[in-house]
Amino acid sequence: MGSFPVSAAKQAALADRMRRLGVSEGDLEERFIRSSGPGGQRTNKVSTCVILRHRPSGLEVRCQRERLQVLNRFLARRVLLDRLEAQRLGRLSEEAQRISKIRRQKRRRSRRAKEKMLEAKHHRTQIKADRRRVAPHAGEV
Q1: Has residue 41 got a pLDDT over 80?
Q2: What is the CATH number of domain 8-93?
Q3: I need a surface site. Which of 36, 39, 43, 68 has the fewest CB within 10 A?
Q4: Is the pLDDT confidence value at 66 over 90?
Q5: What is the CA radius of gyration of the chain?
Q6: What local confidence, expressed as pLDDT, does residue 6 receive?
Q7: Cα–Cα distance, 43 to 33 (Å, whole number)
Q8: Residue 53: phi, psi to the nearest 5?
Q9: What average pLDDT does range 70-96 have in this prediction?
Q10: Where are the chain's structural domains?
Q11: Which residue has the higher pLDDT, 3 or 125?
Q12: Rounded distance, CA 103 to CA 10, Å?
């Protein structure tokens, strides 16, 4: 594994994680392409986007988060290991759980669910209205 512009602790953690998952540098195939998006001349001239492929599993990751190619190489390895780990453990990763939770929250309610919710709100409004003090009539004291 090459030297990345991150702390030695992060590099050691990545190497340890690769060993634990049984991934070697020889299993990885790296390609570099130009990044897309804003950036002007630099984006058009420098290939900072990294495409990392794990040959045994066929998993492919694309990373263009940072402007430095070496940093994108490091981040691509981390993302690839995350996906391999989730695939091997056969469970949803924390990230996938978070995404599915957001999707559930944004999902539109069915008509029946909406009617039930509005009915419950109306019922609650009635309960609160019944608790209000009764104002005395104009003629009473």
Answers
A1: no
A2: 3.30.160.20
A3: 36
A4: no
A5: 28
A6: 85
A7: 10
A8: -120, 130
A9: 84
A10: 8-93, 100-131
A11: 125
A12: 32
Share of the chain above pLDDT 70, in %: 94
140 DSSP assignment: -
Which residue from 81, 79, 73 is spatially nearest to 30, judged by alpha carbons? 73
Q: Residue 53: how many CA atoms within 13 Å on its side-chain side?
A: 7
Q: How far apart are CA 63 and CA 51, in angstroms?
A: 7
Structure tokens at 22: 């049984």
pLDDT at 116 over 80: yes
Q: Region of 127 please: left (phi>0), alpha (psi -120 to 50) or beta.
A: alpha
Least confident of 18-22, 57-61, 100-104, 130-134: 130-134
Q: What is the pLDDT of residue 77?
A: 95
Place of tokens 């009915």: 119
In 3D space, the residue among 59, 72, 75, 63 whose CA is nearest the CA of residue 27 turns out to be 59
Burial 103-127 (b: 16+ CB within 10 A, else e): eeeeeeeeeeeeeeeeeeeeeeeee
